[in-house]
Design a protein that fits this description.
By secondary structure, the chain is of the alpha/beta class. The chain contains 5 helices and 18 strands. The strands form 4 sheets. A 7-stranded mixed β-sheet has the order 1-10-11-12-13-14-17, covered by helices on one side. Strand 13, helix 3 and strand 14 form a beta-alpha-beta unit. The longest helix is centred in the last third of the chain and has 11 residues.
Amino acid sequence: MKTTEEIRLSSSSSKPTDLKTGSIFFIGNATVLIRYAGFTILTDPIFIHMHEKVQLFPTITSTRLTNPALDIEQLPPLDLVVLSHFHGDHFDQVAVRKLDKSIPIVTTPHATEELSIRGFTKPHKLKTWESISFVKDDVQLNIIATPGIHGSLPVAVFLPQVMGSILDFQTKDGQHLLRLYITGDTLVFDDIREIPKHYPDIDVALLHLGGTMAMGIMLTMDAKEGVEMFRIINPKKAIPIHYNDYDVFKSPLEDFQRLAKETGIEERIHYLKHGETYTFEVNRS
């Protein structure tokens, strides 16, 4: 595992850092706010509204079917953004116009190029298994790029690079605090099985579902693959996101809910509606 760099962030509070509790606020699609250990992290920012469109391919657009839980102007101060890939339904025209151009964005090499063209000054590119560290007060956040494939071969070679992400929080002396996994827009493939070998004991996994279809090809996990991903990663808790938001999504959340119940994993699944918050406790050993 190669670490590309370490970035120190300034503290925005004089209060002691809370290491016992954190939260995940669901804005919509793959956009969530993660708050823990003094960090505020935004993922895959999209803020267009119902009936508005995003560009997926030169000749293909997708219409949003929902509204975000909040508008971009309502965001709290952010430390960084984690972006799975550069696609209109993950970094939309609102984010391009209104997101702070100096915010650090951890993403793929392809997305780094696209963001730089659009004026963003601090994109940080990660190749698979590379990592970057952010230090704030006494906590270090390591972000590791994990394998992802946005559609099956050979179609995948024509689609944007995509990455999953491990967010590994620890004290500066190396004590484990919290480990999150965000799948990104991937299907289940052989390389996914390497993730728990390197990063077991996932506390929370955010599963990008939806069964996205374009040109008759599935580009993101449907319900069946979502359950398979859960079994491979084996997190303590999983939260489905990236569902029911766009007209290219063909596998509704209800399909996953049914399969989760049939396969006996539903007790470890937490469902969020837009605007709801999952609050978690961290037990330090």
